[in-house]
Design goal:
The complex is a heterodimer.
Chain A lengths: L12 H4 E3 H8 L3 H11 L9 H4 L9 E3 H8 L2 H21 L3 H9 L7 H7 L3 H6 L1 H11 L10 H21 L2 E6 L3 E8 L2 E8 L12 H25 L13 H12 L1 H13 L29 H18 L6 E4 L5 H10 L3 E4 L18 E3 L13 E3 L2 H9 L32 H11 L6 H23 L21 H18 L3 H44 L1
Parallel strand pairs in A: 6-7, 6-8, 8-9
Antiparallel strand pairs in A: 1-2, 3-4, 4-5
Chain B lengths: L3 H13 L5 H10 L10 H4 L24 E4 L5 E3 L7 H10 L6 E4 L4 E4 L2 H11 L41 H16 L28 H5 L25 H9 L26 H14 L12 H4 L13 E8 L6 E6 L5 E6 L3 E6 L5 E6 L4 E6 L8 E5 L2 E5 L6 H12 L13 E3 L4 H5 L1 E6 L6 E4 L5 E5 L9 E5 L4 E3 L11 E4 L5 E5 L3 E6 L4 E7 L5 E6 L5 E6 L4 E5 L8 E3 L6 E6 L5 E6 L3 E7 L4 E8 L7 E3 L7 E6 L3 E7 L3 H4 L12 H16 L4
Antiparallel strand pairs in B: 1-2, 3-4, 5-33, 6-7, 7-8, 8-9, 10-11, 11-12, 12-14, 13-14, 15-16, 16-17, 17-18, 19-20, 20-21, 21-22, 23-24, 24-25, 25-26, 27-28, 28-29, 29-30, 31-32, 32-33
Classes of the chains: A alpha/beta, B alpha+beta.
């Protein structure tokens, strides 16, 4: 007994957290500066386990930071830079107010700046960590590089974003590590695999943005500041691993072009702009530090990793082979892009899979051959009809390219000819689990990948119906036996009924399960009910989709028949 | 009031209107009547000194001269004497009353004289007080003439020649420039370096040292990646992913936070037709906000196979025997059956119903052997458990009658009659709360032997194992007379409790020990009848106990309650329930134990009877069947080979479910054709029938 009485909220979780306002006061920063600091340092609020305890008994909504995080921020040199900048702004305002232009000029010359290198290193101690977090950085840079040069943010930032994104694309092309592409209504999703990390980014379609008013561009700019630094260092490192020159340069295979470039590079001002535009054309390969004589990669011996048996090794090898085949998907094909297709996206995708690509000279710099080239195999067109057509090439719509990439094989071009109604474009990111709804196009594609010939439509329909039946059977099982009870059944005495043994057994089993469920503990029962509810809902949704599809198919069939009759 | 202020206008006048107006000069001269010497001296006027120097003592506190006859010195060094007589208060007052110029008279401290202000001076004071110019003639609103205007004049405004310094180079500047040149020459001043605008990149991760990984990196919760798009986000999705008109309407009416999809799926015929996504920047911005504003917490996702959650119980088939088939139905009652009871020999069944009849049945043949009409709806019937006595207690209204049904062994019946008739009135007749009466006439012929009239309605009757004592429950909250115990052989009634806590729901005698169990709404109290004390109080953890059953072994008690629970007590272990089962959906009405097998059954308002196989280590629900409106259930557990359960139903039916494998021994035939029965029952019934057909004994 004895001792001091313990006071509430003076130990334990209440002391581990700090509210945002308190943290801000502790750092003596304005809210805007605190926000910037949190963004740059990657400090985020934490949700305490016992909110009421942390909130000292109050249940008011409040965001909490870890006290350790805030202490960590106190040692950040950038905080000092923020203060310097604040002072600078004050001095400048004063100078302008007094119309002391000379002083203002001098002050502006000494504008304090800061670097984020140490923060990047601190947040991502290893390169892989940085790569893991690069998704958002890429999406942001690609978005900012499409912004107009006037208005929303500094021109330098936009140019830097453009440069970094172009460098990234060139790297992906050189590495040939693009895996999936998806044309969505929001933009184009790309997925690449870099050093074993799956990286997905979203690029908006090339249109002018109507800038929304409810967006705080300062927040976006702070993020971009961080992301450009991160992406720059990542690009540098990645280029280094491939023995490429950084900042990248294109190889001048054609002497004429080279001369042209050399002449132009006399004018230093245009030099950087031009090299960037040449780079962004994505049509030429990059200069290597050590010009290796295209050494054939020696076939590597494969050793099973620890705890891996022969089957797994074989699986791994097969996956590797598949990947190699995919990387050489368009090898040997020669593409020409018509002017109405999204040039950059298509050039990027095609070059990633080893195709040669060109476009009209007037469209963009970097075209390598003309429309009239006889060796062109595919001509990508996105208009209902074309006047002049060459016989020895396929005229396909752009979706063909993307679908081929996702299917990892060259799909039949007939479905994608000019003026043909396109088959649906499916998302390559969806991996259907058991019980999920699979659109019939996906099933067809899977069959194609396995090497089966596309079946007749009737067969497909049959298989679908069978599936439906299966699904309905499953559902029945789930619903149990209660449903089967008819409301009024008359049984005359003495009438013998044949006993369906199988059925009886099933029923007995279901009954057994029902009784066991009845005997569950309350906690388990709650969880069980929740899981079963979720399962039933997914089944219901899948059924709804398949029913919808069925109705649509029937309607379209009826339409076709009507047309035929006419 | 004096000096400077008055003098200023005077001077101005001198400057502006000097010699212009002699008359005014005269007036101004009269202004200076402050002076000691009265003569007007023109030369004196021109004195350049601003200060009034009639007294030369300077700016000192005049009280220093308080004690002297003089007040200072004039310009000639002569003393200025104070006036001979100082004015006192009375003088002052008289002066104020009499002198009409008193208001314009002021005291000059420097000279100690009183000065009377002239009209002009008073005017001046007024003007100055109003903030006007002292001079009346001064026009403050004269038109301003711009000398330095935008109009170029042919002549210079000023005739001042240019300075010499505007023609020769500045020496100071020369010196300064020389210093700067020298500093540049010496390398002290360097030209400003151009700012590096382009960021410099290098191999940041050239040296990845493991020490750089801080403790906080292990605490770090990485932000979840963006959700990958599904088929519905495609620019050309399969048609089933597009929303129908109704779905679209629902989507539009929903709150943006509640929507399952944040966008409307769209289909475009070609890539060329796809427009820009209007919310692109917003979505990116929201992602940014999520990254730095959203609180993060690590949450464990439950990844359980639901099958694993189901407890592994022994298969019910291995726990047989237990009743599974409906085999017998007893027709006859025209209203709800409230209670049933089976004779100790197992051959007979008695049932009491709301149609005011008690019926006696033969169990195996479902034949109604006897129907007895009583004076009210029957609440409870109980067969005397002693095999040597053939007595049935029937309660209706406030009465309990003891009936000798006259079934079975005649010797036993006559012995019972004899037992009752052999009663001799004691000499001292005690006044009892319950009247014992012997029925006469028709009732006697029907088999009624004794009628016990209680003060209140009797809900339940319960026999002691020996068959001599009978407990009756008259539920009434707070009353002292809720339970009475009758001794049949001595026709005596006793009220065991002076006071009852709560409303008694049901009572029961312990099968082997001298215990008496009383169930109130929340507790079961166990009393020792010999020591006459409370032994145990079982907490049932439920709101309202409806029924109770004691295991024949005497160690276990189960209680059914109106809040869907069945509490199982082990009397040896604790006063809290060993297990609480919640497998019914509605209130429990009846519970029952089997005599030999570890089975117990519970009947509920949800129309089901659940038979459980209860061992100490686990409880397994064995069998569940549905029936309509249960009121009371009972196990048929007389013969060891026979396991069956009786469940009385609405419309006066009693269903009998028997164990599957002994149907042939029992040799019963189902005879039901009831459209109200549920089909599963019919199916079970018919299948059992189909099986019985194969049975040779039939």
């Amino acid at each position: 007994m004895g001792g001091l009485q313990k006071k509430k909220y003076e130990s334990g979780s209440a002391t581990n957290y700090i509210s945002r306002n308190k943290a801000r006061k502790k750092l003596s920063l304005s809210l805007a500066d605190f926000r910037r600091l949190c963004i740059l340092k990657g400090i985020y609020p934490h949700e305490p386990k016992h909110k009421k305890k942390v909130n000292k008994g109050s249940t008011a909504q409040r965001t909490f930071y870890l006290l350790k995080d805030i202490r960590f921020l106190m040692h950040e040199p950038i905080v000092g830079k923020f203060r310097e900048y604040k002072i600078f702004v004050r001095k400048l305002r004063k100078a302008y107010g007094k119309a002391e232009w000379g002083t203002a000029e001098k002050l502006r010359g000494n504008k304090p700046g800061y670097k984020l290198d140490h923060i990047i290193k601190e947040r991502y101690p290893t390169f892989i960590d940085a790569l893991r977090d690069v998704d958002d950085a890429l999406s942001m840079c690609f978005l900012f590089s499409t912004f107009p040069r006037t208005g929303k943010c500094h021109v330098q930032t936009i140019e830097l974003c453009r440069r970094l994104s172009v460098e990234w694309m060139n790297y992906i092309i050189t590495l040939r590590s693009l895996r999936k592409v998806f044309l969505s209504i929001k933009g184009i999703y790309y997925q690449a695999e870099v050093l074993g990390q799956i990286i997905t980014w979203l690029v908006p379609y090339q249109f002018a943005h109507d800038h929304p008013t409810d967006v705080d561009y300062r927040v976006m700019a702070t993020f971009t500041e961080l992301y450009t630094t991160l992406l720059g260092f990542i690009n540098f490192r990645l280029y280094q691993t491939l023995n490429l020159v950084y900042p990248p340069k294109v190889t001048h295979s054609q002497p004429a072009v080279m001369l042209h470039f050399d002449l132009l590079s006399e004018f230093g001002f245009y030099c950087s702009l031009l090299s960037l535009s040449k780079l962004s054309a994505l049509s030429a390969s990059l200069v290597r530090v050590v010009s290796t004589a295209e050494a054939e990669e020696a076939e590597l011996d494969h050793f099973p990793a620890e705890g891996e048996d022969g089957e797994k090794l074989a699986e791994r090898l097969k996956a590797r082979q598949d990947q190699d085949r995919q990387e050489k998907l368009f090898e040997g094909l020669k593409f020409f892009l018509n002017r109405e297709v999204p040039r950059e996206s298509l050039a990027f995708v095609l070059r990633c899979f080893g195709a040669q690509v060109s476009w009209d000279k007037s469209l963009c710099i970097g075209s390598t051959y003309d429309v009239t080239d006889e060796t062109i195999t595919h001509h990508v067109v996105d208009r209902p009809s074309l006047e002049k057509q060459y016989i020895n090439r396929y005229y396909v719509q752009p979706q063909w390219v993307y679908d081929c990439v996702n299917a990892r094989m060259l799909l039949p071009v007939e479905d994608y000819f000019v003026g043909v109604t396109l088959p649906p474009h499916l998302s390559p990111f969806v991996e259907e689990k058991e019980g999920d709804y699979v659109p019939p196009e996906k099933l067809k594609l899977l069959a194609l990948q396995k090497g089966e010939r596309p079946e007749e439509e009737e067969d497909n329909d049959d298989s679908e119906e069978e599936e439906d039946e299966d699904q309905s059977d499953d559902e029945d099982e789930l619903k149990g036996m209660e449903e089967k009870q008819a409301s009024s059944v008359k049984v005359t005495p003495g009438e013998a009924k044949p006993v369906n043994r199988q059925r009886a057994e099933q029923e007995a089993k279901a009954e057994e399960k029902r009784l066991a469920v009845m005997m569950m503990k309350k906690r388990d029962k709650y969880l069980y009910d929740k899981i079963m509810f979720g399962k039933k809902r997914s089944v219901r949704e899948a059924n709804k989709m398949s029913a919808k599809r069925k109705a649509l198919d029937e309607a379209s069939k009826a339409n076709k028949k009507k047309k035929l009759k006419k | 009031f004096k000096s400077t202020k008055e003098r200023k206008p005077k001077k101005k006048q001198n400057v502006s209107a000097d010699g212009e107006n002699q008359e005014e000069k005269v007036t101004s001269g009269s202004d200076s009547g402050l002076r000691v010497s009265s003569q007007v001296d023109e030369y004196e006027q021109d004195t350049s000194d601003e200060e009034d120097i009639r007294n030369t003592v300077g700016n000192i506190p005049m009280e220093w001269y308080k004690d002297y006859p003089h007040i200072g010195y004039d310009l000639d060094g002569k003393k200025i004497f104070k006036p001979i007589r100082n004015k006192d208060e009375l003088d002052e007052f008289l002066d104020k009353m009499e002198n009409p110029d008193y208001w314009r008279t002021i005291h000059d401290k420097m000279t100690g004289t009183d000065v009377c202000l002239s009209d002009e001076q008073v005017d001046l004071v007024h003007r100055l007080q109003q903030g006007k110019f002292g001079d009346v003639n001064f026009n403050e609103y004269e038109p301003a003439i711009d000398f330095f205007s935008n109009e170029v004049m042919i002549h210079p405004v000023t005739n001042r020649p240019a300075d010499k310094r505007s023609f020769i180079p500045s020496l100071i500047e020369k010196e300064k420039v020389g210093k700067l040149v020298h500093a540049i020459k010496m390398g002290w001043i360097k030209p400003r370096r151009p700012k590096e605008t382009a960021p410099q990149y290098y191999d940041l991760w050239a040296k990845e040292d493991p020490n750089a990984i801080l403790g906080r990196h292990k605490m770090h919760i990485p932000a979840p990646k963006m959700r990958l798009p599904g088929h519905e986000e495609s620019y050309n999705p399969p048609p089933e992913y597009l929303l129908t008109d109704e779905e679209r309407q629902v989507w539009e009416q929903q709150d943006p936070d509640e929507r399952k999809l944040s966008f409307l799926p769209q289909k475009y015929l070609s890539l060329r037709a796809v427009p820009a996504f209007s919310r692109f920047i917003q979505e990116r911005f929201e992602r940014c906000l999520d990254l730095y504003l959203c609180p993060r917490q690590r949450k464990m996702r439950v990844n359980v196979n639901p099958e694993d959650l189901i407890p592994k119980l022994p298969r019910p088939r291995d726990l047989q025997p237990f009743p599974t088939l409906q085999s017998l139905v007893y027709h006859g009652h025209s209203s709800l059956i409230r209670s049933i009871s089976i004779s100790p020999s197992g051959q007979w069944l008695v049932s009491g119903s709301d149609d005011c009849t008690v019926r006696f049945w033969e169990v195996c043949t479902t034949r109604c052997l006897k129907t007895m009409e009583v004076g009210g709806p029957v609440k409870s019937v109980a067969w005397n458990p002693a095999p040597s006595i053939s007595l049935v207690a029937v309660s209706y209204g406030e009465n309990v009658i003891l009936v000798n049904p006259g079934l079975g062994d005649r010797l036993i019946c006559s012995a019972t009659d004899q037992l009752i008739s052999s009663y001799e009135e004691p000499e001292e007749v005690k006044d009892q709360q319950v009247q014992w009466a012997v029925p006469e006439g028709k009732a006697q012929e029907q088999g009624q032997r004794l009628i016990l009239t209680h003060p209140k309605a009797v809900k339940q009757v319960s026999w002691h194992g020996r068959g001599d004592y009978l407990a009756c429950v008259m539920p009434d909250d707070g009353s002292s007379l809720q339970v009475v115990i009758h001794q049949v052989s001595r026709r005596r009634t006793q009220n065991p409790f002076h006071r009852n806590k709560g409303a008694v729901q049901c009572v029961s005698f312990h099968p082997s020990r001298p215990y008496f169990l009383v169930a109130t709404q929340r507790y079961v109290r166990v009393y020792n009848l010999i020591k006459q004390e409370l032994t145990k109080k079982l907490m049932a953890n439920c709101k309202w106990i409806s029924s109770m059953a004691v295991h024949p072994g005497g160690d276990n008690v189960i209680c059914g309650s109106y809040d869907c629970r069945l509490a199982w007590f082990d009397l040896d272990l604790s006063t809290k329930p060993y297990k609480v089962l919640r497998h019914h959906k509605k209130a429990l009405r009846g519970v029952a134990y089997h005599k030999h097998y570890p089975l117990f059954a519970s009947g509920s308002d949800d129309g089901t009877v659940i038979v459980c196989h209860g061992m100490v280590y686990n409880v397994t629900a064995c069998f569940c069947f549905s029936s309509l409106a249960l009121s009371h259930i009972s196990f048929y557990s007389v013969r060891e080979w026979c396991v069956s359960i009786f469940s009385p139903q609405l419309f006066g039916l009693i269903d009998v479910y028997i164990a599957n494998h002994i149907y042939s021994n029992l040799g019963c035939i189902v005879t039901i054709t009831l459209p109200t029965l549920s089909s599963s029952q019919v199916r079970k019934a018919s299948s059992s029938f189909a099986l019985t057909l194969h049975c040779p004994k039939l």
